[in-house]
Design brief:
By secondary structure, the chain is of the alpha/beta class. Helices cover 35% and strands 22% of the residues. The protein has six helices and seven strands; from the N terminus they run βαβαβαβαβαββα. Strands 3-2-4-1-6-7-5 form a seven-stranded mixed beta sheet, with helices on both faces. Strand 2, helix 2 and strand 3 form a beta-alpha-beta unit.
Length: 173
């Protein structure tokens, strides 16, 4: 059994329109919510063994803040292809390529890619309310908990997961 924690990066700062999208930092709310969600994951006892993150500043910062709040040192791998806003295939390929044998993986990415992957990378089983909620909106710093019945992440393209939960920062405060 494999556990995926799929996180949209925390809220970014739009105060500097001259910055390239890739270089946008987190805003005050993002700086608060990234560690909040990390503490929530720790308290839920869903500690990841590794993290894959987009190379965008806001995603990397989200990953590092969440990991620090978990109080656990695990590898964080920056994956350039996770800087994607498409149909979720970039997430699927990144997990299959970099997930290895880790039992629990945290992936930090961007919308709509994160939302689309969560919906299409899971079967219709699992928590229907969580699926409906994330289908309606996937806010910044939200996390979907998906479980997969497989031995290695390389099987992901052929395996559908089951959504177990969907958490938003306002739900865990």
């Amino acid at each position: 059994m494999k556990t995926l924690l799929l996180m949209r990066h925390a809220k970014s700062d739009w105060d500097h329109p001259d910055l390239d999208d890739h270089d946008r930092p987190l805003n005050r709310r993002g700086l608060r919510n990234a560690p909040l969600m990390g503490k929530f994951i720790r308290d839920a006892k869903l500690m990841p063994n590794a993290c894959l993150t987009s190379t965008a500043v806001r995603a990397r910062h989200t990953a590092w803040l969440a990991a620090a709040a978990m109080g656990r040192d695990f590898p964080i791998t920056e994956v350039p292809t996770l800087y994607d806003f498409g149909d979720g295939e970039a997430i699927e390929r990144a997990i299959a390529m970099h997930g290895g044998n880790h039992s629990c993986l945290l992936v930090v990415g961007h919308n709509p890619c994160v939302q689309t992957f969560a919906l299409h990378g899971s079967n219709k089983h699992g928590d229907a309310a969580a699926r409906a909620e994330l289908s309606a909106k996937y806010p910044t710093a939200a996390i979907t908990h998906i479980e997969y019945d497989m031995a290695n992440w390389s099987a992901l393209p052929r395996t559908k997961g089951s959504i177990r939960a969907f958490w938003k920062p306002r739900d865990v405060t």
